[in-house]
Structure formats: C-alpha cells, structure tokens
Amino acid sequence: MAKDKSESEQAKLAALSPFELKDELIKAAGGGAVERAANVSMLNAGRGNPNFLATIPRHGFWQLGLFAMRESERSFAFMPEGVGGFPRRDGLTERFDLFLRENKGVPGIDFLRGAVSYVRDQLGLSAGDFLYEMCEGILASNYPVPDRMLKLSEIIVGQYLRREMIGKHPFVGEFDIFAVEGGTAAMTYIFNTLRENHLIRAGDTIALGMPIFTPYIEIPRLNDYQLNVVNLEATVESGWQYSKKELDKLRDPMVKAFFLVNPSNPPSVKINDESLQYIAEIVKERPDLILLTDDVYGTFADDFVSLFALAPKNTILVYSYSKYFGATGWRLGTIATHRDNVLDRLLGELPKDVKKELHTRYESITTEPDKLKFIDRLVADSRTVALNHTAGLSTPQQVQMVLFSLFSLMDTPDAYKNALKRLIRSRKQALYEEVGISFEDDDPNQVDYYTILDIEFLGERMFGRKFVEWLLKNTEPSELLFRLAREARVVLLPGKGFGTQHPSGRVSLANLNESDYRQIGRAMRKLIEEYVERYNKDTGSKLDKHAVK
C-alpha cells in the first residue's frame, strides 16, 4: 500500500499538537487553513466547542444589563449628552422590583426574579448588596475589587462548585476561588506560580494521568519548566480507569505533583470511586503531594465527585464554564484551593534564601509578603506582580459566571443537565450504529462528551488480532485521519496527541447534529470495509467486511 506522505512529512506531523494537526486535516478536507462557517459540507468533529448553550441565564444577563443602564442614566440624569454614572444603592431593590413588573413576560425576567430570591432566601445574602455588585459589575465601571473575585460572586460560585464538584460527599472547611479567563488561563497561572515560588523546579518530577488534555503534556517540556514526567496510564482495555499499580507510582517521593483531567479528555470517563479513594489514601502517606484536578467535564457526569472533595487540602481544583454552558467565548474559569492547604504549608517550609527572594518579589503588594497565600500569589503573578492592582477577571464576565451558577443552583430537577446528557448520548448511539459496532453503554462512569475510536481495540474486536497487526504495519498513524478528511471531508483529532497508547481518533459528540454523526459513522465504516478488502487480498483471508460485533 502506498504511503500517503513521506517519512519526513510524517515525522513533522507527529510533532504537531493535535490542535495544530487539525488545521492540516481541515486543509485536506478542503476547508483551507481556517475553517469557515459556510463550509457546511465539511464535518469537523475535532472541535470540542459545543453547538448548544444555556439560553435562560443569557437572557437574564441582557435584562440585567438594561436595568443597570437605566440605573446609570438615572444617576446622571442632568447630563443628556450620553453621560451616565454609577448605580445608587438607596432604593435599588425597589426600583428593580418595578423593572421586573414593567417587563413581565420578557425572557430572562422570571429568572432574575428567582435569582434575587434565591440569593436572599437560600444563601442568606443581602439582595441590595447583590444587585449593586451585579449592576456595577455588568456596567464594568470599576476595577474588580477584590481582585481575586468579587465578594458576593465568590460566595455564589462557591455554592455552585460545592453542588457540582463535591455534592453530598463530606467536606470540612472552606475554600477560596480565583476567577480566571477559562481553564486555559488556570493552567497557565498554576504552572507559572508553582515555578515562581519554587514548589516545582527544573529537573523535578511530576505525574500525569494519561490520556490527558494535550497542554498538560506539552507545558512541562518547555524551557520554562524542564520537568521530568511520569505517566499514569489508563487504557481502553481497563475502561479508561487507572490500576492500583499505576496509581502506586504516586508513592514515589520524587513525584512532586500529580495532574489529571477528570472526567478524562478525550475518553470522557470519570475516575471511579475506588480509584479516587485509593488516591486519597496515598495522599495520607504523602502529605506533601500536590494534586491538580481539571474537572471541566464533571458537570456532564452522573453523580460526579471531584478528587477535591476527597483530598481537599492537597488539591487545586480547576473548573471551566465553557463546555457545560456553551460559553467558550466568555472565557470563564475558576481555580479553587482549600483555606488550609499543602501549598501554603510548603511555602512556609522553603529555605530562608528562597523566602527572602519571594519576600522581595511580593513586598510591593503587601506589608506581609511571607504570609501571602498561594492563591493570592496566583493573582499577583497573573499580572507580573507589578500590575496586581488591576488584576482580576473582567466584571461583566464575573456577572455572567454568577448567573450561570445561579441557573444551575436553582434548577433542582436538573432539567438542563439531563437534556444535555440525552443530547450527546443520542449522538454517540447514532455514530456507533453507523460504524457497525455494538457496545454496552451501561458504564456509570461514561460521560460521552467525546468518544475515542481506538483503531487497535475496535479493529481487534471486529476482525481479530491478525487484521489489526496488518493494519498497523501497512498504515501510518495519521493515514486514516487524512483519508477521512480527503475522501469524506470528516475531521477528527488524533488520540495519540492526548497520550492514548493506540492509534485512535477523538470524536467530539458536542459540536454537530445527530445526522452528522450518522454521516461520520458511514464514512468510517466505508473506510474500514476498504481496509478489510485489502487485507483479504494481501493475506488470502476471507474476513466478512460487513461483520458487526
């Protein structure tokens, strides 16, 4: 079989991040270097950006904005030249009630009424203070104060994280939150502050739970960090769970930190309860171990419990609103740490010369730099310390984050969550039906935001090990992806770029319609059948290319 590309070209492609390789696949599919919205004939299932979004809290955002504008104009009514002022606290709740009555029946109004009621009656916060923070925030008329997160906004978002990340699991103590520009900013800030504060240094060893979101693989290799990496492998054969043997790698005192994505990206499987508890037990033996859990897909799972709930004092929690609320463009994320955490303890145990260095680094922003908490160092470092006074996520972003949180907190039947689960799981069913693979979908840990089409695993299941060995010998790792792109105009991401052990393709189940997934499934099935025909011809075998297993 002729190779699609030369060995040198294959080597260059293998070095690319899957997100950069995606652009090459789009070119092969006829989409050009940048995918155009009008190019409807190309099916890009490589994108994680969902094609659904939460409408009710967005309606609430715009209606709140109209009320805030009315308040601003009221403050400077004597200046008709388009000059407004800050909202006034006195009488704010009464004027808001009037606004709600005047706009009865308008989308978003009932949600806002319920949100204020929930904040007052369920959370015990002042409705007036809440409305003022929201109005000033949505007008973006002031710097974020406090810079880490607006005061009441942090409380409300904290309640949301408790509900979605901790649930009914016992949890002792409180945690702090830093509102950031999506999960990507969270990763950037955390790596940077760990390094700046000497909690990880060049040559140190960290562990990664594989497969994992590609930047977690790429960042430790950069000259900025130069970290050694130990991989903890979850395999398709084990249902994408970590064995005790793999988790025992965390017992090595050389491992300074363990980073994982839960539920995983791309398999979309949450870590089972047994493994979470096993990690928590290891932490008891390794109280100095730093954990980072990126739980962006946790809100799509059934009965999700974060590692943050089981080992809160050792864990940095990263959460993004992007996927669940269809809000990738808003750039909304959070970093949470327990108020009694290993990071602050390790900072206190640093050598005197390092403490002196850090004292100098942070002395311009506090009179007690030695007592500055890790999470507040994150804030300062995010603006190179010198710009700490203007740090913080933009206030309109924080307002939308709060409204998303309240929408979820108020949705006690989980109507929105259950609708999304039905949507993505019906897409998965459609895809696999057309590929011709039957599967058991009763794994309670499956989340299904993505699905991995593992060539080796599925090929062996459908046609046997000899067929798989022939396929791997006669094709390059990216060949199947490029053929799908050129011949069927279907774009998937390579699983290898996320650390999967076998050649595979990541299919996002979030960004296309069910009929599109059926089309993708048929295209894949056609390609599989062609390879079976070639295999039969080359080996003299008589595999049934229409076999369904």
UniProtKB/TrEMBL annotation:
Gene3D superfamilies documented for this protein: 1.10.20.110, Aspartate Aminotransferase, domain 1 (3.90.1150.10), Type I PLP-dependent aspartate aminotransferase-like (Major domain) (3.40.640.10)
Protein name as annotated: Aminotransferase
Pfam families cross-referenced by the UniProt entry: Aminotran_1_2
GO molecular function: aspartate 4-decarboxylase activity; pyridoxal phosphate binding; transaminase activity
EC number: 2.6.1.-
Protein family: Belongs to the class-I pyridoxal-phosphate-dependent aminotransferase family.
Matching NCBIfam families: asp_4_decarbox, PRK09275.1
Organism: Paraburkholderia phenazinium
